[in-house]
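FAQ: What does the model actually see?

It sees only this:
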Amino acid sequence: AKQIPGKEEFYETLRYYRNEIKLSGVKAQFNTRVGVDELVQGGFDEILLATGVTPRTPAIEGVDHPKVLSYLDVLRDKKPVGKNVAVIGAGGIGFDVSEYLTHEGESPALNLAKFNAEWGIDSEYKDRGGIKPAHLDKAPRQIYLLQRKTSKVGDGLGKTTGWIHRTSLKNRNVEMIAGATYNKIDDAGLHISVGGKDVLLPVDNVVLCAGQEPFRALQAGLEAAGQKVTLIGARMWPRSWTPSAPSSKAPKWLRRCDHVDVTQLESAGGGLAGAVARDGGPAGSGAAALDPA
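And it is asked to produce this:
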């Protein structure tokens, strides 16, 4: 997320949590791949699995074509992307990838003059109301942002920020297409149907942002070995509790952990990062946690 223009604050978020880990006495071990055997032999009282997700691959004819990329290929692996791109999936990730692909050079979030120019802000108040015509650099790519749903593209984004994301992409001439049926992908591009009409998008690449699947490769093996396992993630937290809520309302496993050591890992599926927390306190107080980086 920190690579998306406008989301650079996540650099500071990561710095903060890295420092908090040091201050809390958590032992962090990075770039370590662990398996079921290592975890079972570790003698943990409990293992918390929070190994994140893997990109979902939709069932589209030709989805294995060389021009098809996942969002991880683009954001993490920095694979080259052509000048004409179709982004499948208009959720938060689809918008982020589109934002990323329509920018080049310094992010406006880090350059006040560039930000003011893009949003038509006259910081010197030479124009009436401090507003002037917006000026944007030409986008380096033509992006088509598609979704299957017939509702407004970006309808599920945040109520207070969604309009900003939609406006930003609109200003960069991103073509948003709702109600699309994905027919096939081939050398010619992405073949879709919209409103009963067949359309060919002659794109160089198709980027898949069509959701995610839970990555739980270790769960079955650990449970088969008799290890106590707890799944952690946004869907696993009780609806009534957030990290800012009183500790008495926290999940029982969190209240039981007096001390943890954390080991980051590279999981076998998709290279996701995670962590292992080891008992560092009295018997019964420790846990092992696998958590995304």
